[in-house]
Design goal:
alpha/beta, 12 helices
């Protein structure tokens, strides 16, 4: 029963976390729909504008409007109220394609390299994922490979203590690749389980940063064929289009196998989830809607869309 309550609690937090987006997107959509006696080009133009303002992105907005116009031609849209349902269904269909919770085998060593620019909530996300996995009875080790910021190592150490998992670290300014090498060696020597590696995110030295990340990835792969199993990119939803640019950069430079979108509760542009799904095609693993330990959850398209389309908290 506890897990049901837990789930319900998260849904309520997701709903309230998406309230700013709901207000921006659906108030406009509902006003347009209620104010329209007929479905015409003017309504479509205004609807497209409302969607773009909520940051779902021009590609999704154009596709949705095209789909609506098609339905009008086929006489499947008799009244404006049906627009809301179509909007919801289309959004869910796109998100469902990117819904892919992490599937981590029970046996052997599984390595997750977590990347992203500073300020996205990367270290906190690692702590929360470690907590999530530990509650499932998994063995987790954290690796402090963001060695250039002493604060990052301290923060990860605090999370390791809080979640009660071991931490592999070296002195500040150590070579991150050396930390990763030690961690993989330790895992091979017996501990196994899931290894989550924190990495640096200083964006102003992009070339150096990417080279450093590539070196870490190479060393992991050399010591453990197939590693890293997952390169997880953490994005801050409040940065909207900036998050898209970051995702493209990391995807092109080092490859990204999954995304975490944090701080959805702090933005009216939660539509960026739809945009990321449509434009990047990278699986969305987790979304975060707050500060609590269990405010980071595996992403489920239906749950997200349900929470977004709930009217005034009803």
């Amino acid at each position: 029963m506890g897990s049901d309550n837990n789930k319900k609690g998260f849904f309520e937090r997701l709903k309230s976390g998406l309230s700013k987006t709901r207000k921006l997107l659906l108030t406009d959509v509902d006003d347009l729909i209620l104010g329209s006696k007929q479905i015409d080009q003017a309504l479509f133009d205004e609807l497209e504008e409302a969607l773009i303002v909520a940051d779902v992105g021009p590609a999704f907005a154009a596709e949705l409007i095209g789909s609506l116009q098609d339905k009008v031609r086929r006489k499947e849209l008799g009244s404006p109220e049906i627009l809301r349902k179509v909007l919801r269904d289309e959004m869910e269909a796109i998100l469902r394609q990117n819904e892919a919770p992490l599937r981590i085998p029970r046996e052997g060593i599984y390595t997750i390299m977590v990347v992203g620019v500073n300020g996205t909530g990367k270290t906190t996300t690692i702590g929360k994922i470690a907590h999530h996995l530990k509650t499932e009875g998994r063995e987790v080790t954290l690796v402090a490979a963001d060695t250039f910021r002493a604060a990052a190592i301290d923060q990860l150490e605090a999370w390791a203590k809080r979640v009660d998992v071991p931490l592999i670290r070296q002195a500040p300014n150590a070579d991150p690749a050396a930390v990763v090498y030690d961690a993989v060696r330790a895992a091979k020597a017996g501990r196994g389980g899931i290894m989550i590696v924190d990495t640096a995110g200083r964006i102003h030295t992009k070339v150096n940063l990417m080279e450093e990340l590539k070196k870490m990835r190479r060393i992991m792969g050399r010591e453990l064929p197939g590693a890293p199993d997952e390169i997880l990119l953490v994005l801050d939803a409040t940065t909207g289009q900036n998050a898209i640019a970051q995702a493209k950069m990391f995807k092109d430079e080092i490859g990204v196998t999954g995304l975490v979108l944090t701080k959805l509760d702090g933005t009216s542009k939660g539509g960026v989830v739809v945009r990321i799904a449509k434009e990047l095609g990278i699986p969305l693993r987790y979304i975060g809607v707050g500060e609590q330990l269990d405010d980071l959850r595996p992403f489920h398209a239906a749950e997200f869309v349900d929470a977004l389309f709930e009217r005034n908290g009803a």
